[in-house]
């Protein structure tokens, strides 16, 4: 087996590990919000526990990337691909951290009846989950057109976040006994907003990988 063949095999493994990590992160986001909506503390604890697997995979991918750079002396196009993977897994790891934040909010609210029905937070979660899924799909297919669309979709997430924020502030102002719960919901909404930002970052790195140009898609 030639050194070049081995190199491309390792690149393919890197690609597979990234997609595995992306799938785990998608699941973490979905289950964290599900745990909140359904008052499911067991599910929340599962999300927190599973974060160790995501962190371990992130470290493995980073180690493999640096190993390829140091030992294989990749050509410019391959080096850009490796650099893109490094950036993407960093954003994925931070998304997973936000899913953990949401799950911790679920645990803090264990046993409490919610002061309001959760409607907009699940809507926001649906939007952000779709952004993450689309961003990974962009990476798989090197689809820059869809990457630009992800940035536009982030505007809808930001708009919904502002609406949720304003509603929760109003609720707290009217009734001080709601402050603790409303604050937890604010943490959740902010975490979802950050996930949307990280998904947009993924789209930026796909554009960089395909075109070699760095573009700022977040305003």
Automatic annotation (TrEMBL):
The keyword Transport appears for this protein: yes
Gene3D superfamilies listed in its UniProt record: Phosphate transport system protein phou homolog 2, domain 2
Pfam families referenced in this protein's UniProt entry, alphabetically: PhoU (PF01895)
Domain named PhoU: residues: 18-105, 121-206
Keywords: Cytoplasm, Phosphate transport, Transport
SUPFAM superfamilies according to UniProt: PhoU-like
Protein's job: Plays a role in the regulation of phosphate uptake.
NCBIfam families, per the entry: phoU_full (TIGR02135)
UniProt similarity note: Belongs to the PhoU family.
Subunit structure: Homodimer.
Protein name stated in the entry: Phosphate-specific transport system accessory protein PhoU
Organism: Ammoniphilus resinae
Lineage start: Bacteria, Bacillati, Bacillota, Bacilli, Bacillales
